[in-house]
Each structure stands twice: as C-alpha cells, then as structure tokens.
Amino acid sequence: MIRSYFHPTPNPAKVALFLEEACLPYELIPVDTSKGEQHLPAFRAINPNGKVPAIVDTEGPGHKEARIFDSAAILIYLAEKTGKFLGVPEDRPELLSWLLFIASGLGPFSGQAVHFQFAAPEGLTYAVNRYRREAERHYHVLNDHLGGRDFIVGDTYTIANMSAWGWLDRAARVMKGAEDPLAPYPRLKRLFQTVDARPAVQLARAVGKDHDFKKASDEESKRALFPSNYPRDGRSYLHARL
Ligand SMILES: N[C@@H](CCC(=O)N[C@@H](CS)C(=O)NCC(=O)O)C(=O)O
Questions:
Q1: Residue 41 CA to its chain's centroid (Å)
Q2: Among 5, 7, 11, 226, which is best to mutate for testing ligand 1, by the most ligand atoms less than 8 A from CB?
Q3: Which residues partner with 27 through β-bridges?
C-alpha cells in the first residue's frame, strides 16, 4: 500500500497523476500546507524538507517500508516499481535529463514566477522579470525540443510528460495576464493538451477535492508557506516550531 501525502498544488499533482495512470491502490493523506502541517514532526519524518509530495511505500525494497520525497524521485521510484511509463532503456539518459530539467529548472522558475507575481510585495520588478523570463526561457527550451516529436522522450507517454503537465497546468499563473499563456509555445501547448485529455487526468484533478484545504491567504498561511521570511531570535519560523 502506498500513502500519498498531498496538497492540491503542481508537484503533488504529478504524483496523483502517476498513481491514477498506473491504477495503484493508495491512501491519500492531505497535508494542508497553508496551515503549516508540512512542518509537523510526523510529516518531517517522511520529508525532512517539509514539502509535498511525499509517499510511503509499505512494501518498499526488501519488503521494508520506504519513504520517498521530491516529485521527480517519486515518479522515478514508482515507474521503476511498476515498470510503467519509463519508456525504453535506450532512452533512459534522455528521460533522466528532461525529468531533472523540469525538476530543477522549469518547475522552480515557474514557482518563483508565481511567487513574485502573486505573493511577494508589489514593486519587485527585477525579481518578477528574472523569474518570469527564466520560466519563459524554460518553456522555449522544451518547446524547441518538441519539434518533430509527440512526447518529451521517445515515442510514448512517460513520467517526463506527467512531470511537465503538473506545471504547465499552472501556465496561466506563471504567465500572469497572458490571455492564452501557451500560445507562444505551440508544441508545448499540443503536449499539454495531449496529456490533459487523458482519462487519468480527470481522476487526478479530483484527488483531494473532498478535503477542505485552507484557501485563505492570511498571516498563518504566509508564515507556514514562507517561514524563512519570519526569522525569530536568529532562528527561522520553521525551526522555531519544531
Ligand atoms: N522539489 C520539490 C518541491 C516541492 C514543493 O515545492 N512543494 C510545494 C507544493 S507544489 C510545497 O510543499 N509548498 C509548501 C511549502 O513550501 O511549505 C518537488 O518537486 O517535490
């Protein structure tokens, strides 16, 4: 059995998509990051970095319980465990490269673009430009790569496409104000639409809908989500809570 620690945000969405695609039985454990549940000791024992997604596989390697955190690590782990959505072995170097490109580039720059356009104080033009432009640059790199190919790696739908979908789904926030945010990246838009049309995406979108995640952006949520903005006595909010 897999326990999936979840909040309805881009990185956990990738894992939700894999679990639905692979029809793996799992227990969903909501982690309300706006309430600071990612900082509770029980969750930090599963992800010391205090972020979702994370999973626990009660039947891990050697029949021992295993924890896995970080969306790319989880996708690789689950793909290897099930033998699904890995593509062919000859394409493994490309698969790892694009997965890590998304995990360390497209995703984080998109996240920072959202942060500086929606959550940070107004007037930080340099930061907005920096992260928005870098997100755009990553979109261009992937868009160029998709010339003449249907999927990111090889001829099939792999975990690289699931990973890209998680963040492309938030393109309207990353490219704040753009009427059709993927229009300048037609191949990326085609890829997004191909993945988004899969039946498992509808199931993944429904994950966690029955849980009342906190929506308000108030002082509690800001302190929970951006603890390093609130140093206390030389220690961060995060460490002060533990
Ligand atoms: N590199 C990590 C990033 C995880 C991450 O940033 N998760 C966000 C949700 S998409 C989160 O937990 N935010 C709450 C927080 O930072 O406290 C991954 O790919 O899983």
A1: 22
A2: 11
A3: 3
Question: Is the CB of residue 17 less than 8 Å from the CB of residue 41?
Answer: no
Q: CA 161 to CA 145: how far, in whole Å? A: 13
- Whole-number Å distance between alpha carbons of 78 and 210: 25
pTM over 0.70: yes
Helix (H, G, I), strand (E, B) or coil at 153: coil
The single residue listed with the structure tokens 């909501």 is 30
Nearest CA residue ID for atom 1, ligand 1:
70
Question: Rounded to an integer, what distance in angstroms lies between the CA atom of residue 105 and that of residue 159?
Answer: 16
Spatial distance between the Cα atoms of 204 and 9, rounded to a whole number of angstroms: 11
Q: Distance between CA 175 and CA 11 in Å, rounded?
A: 18
The strand order across the sheet containing 2-6 reads 26-30, 2-6, 54-57, 66-69
**Is residue 30 reached through a cis peptide bond, with omega within 30 degrees of 0 on the bond before it?**
no
pLDDT, block means (10 residues), the chain with 242 residues:
98 98 98 98 98 98 98 98 98 98 98 97 95 98 98 98 98 98 98 98 98 96 94 57 49
Beta bridge partners of 38: none
Ligand 1 centre and the CA of 171: distance in Å?
17
